[in-house]
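All the exercises in this workshop are built on plain-text protein records. A record pairs a protein's sequence with a compact description of its fold. The structure tokens are whole numbers drawn from a learned vocabulary of backbone shapes. Once this layout is familiar, the rest of the handout is easier to follow. An example says more than a description, so a record of this kind follows.
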Amino acid sequence: MTSTTLIFRTMHDTDLEQVNAVEQRSAEHPWRKAHFADSMKSGYLCELAEANGTPVGHSVMMAAAGEASILILTVDKKHQGKGIGRQLLQHMMLKASQSGCETILLEVRQSNHKAFNLYLHEGFSEIGIRSNYYPMGNNREDAIVMAMELYSDDFD
């Protein structure tokens, strides 16, 4: 796996077209542009990962009452397998810690073994299942709920 040098920054309205393009080509059930716009208006942490000035991934996280939830983390299909997902996840973990969060949560499709293994490797544990959570064609797929305790020492 080749590691790509990334710059992380806050997502802006002017990024929505590019974020939407990445999302549509890369996610099995993509968010729409309105989801990202609503997330920014709601004050969620919306972050963009860029390599050489090109958006290659994005993530949205909400944080409240000492807990952060990663709502979405997408890596551009054209740039997968380069360690971008890991770097973006670590960035979001740092942001959660800096926001005073003690716990970070996320859901992952039961069939998404690569993401599940990444989250395990980064210190997340499986804490539950949300039955029939994700759309999957004409059916539904379970989500694995994962959590990790954050310690500020981990990010010094």
Summary: The helical segments are 16-26, 33-41, 84-98, 113-121. The first strand starts at residue 7 and ends at 10. The two ends are 26 Å apart (CA to CA).
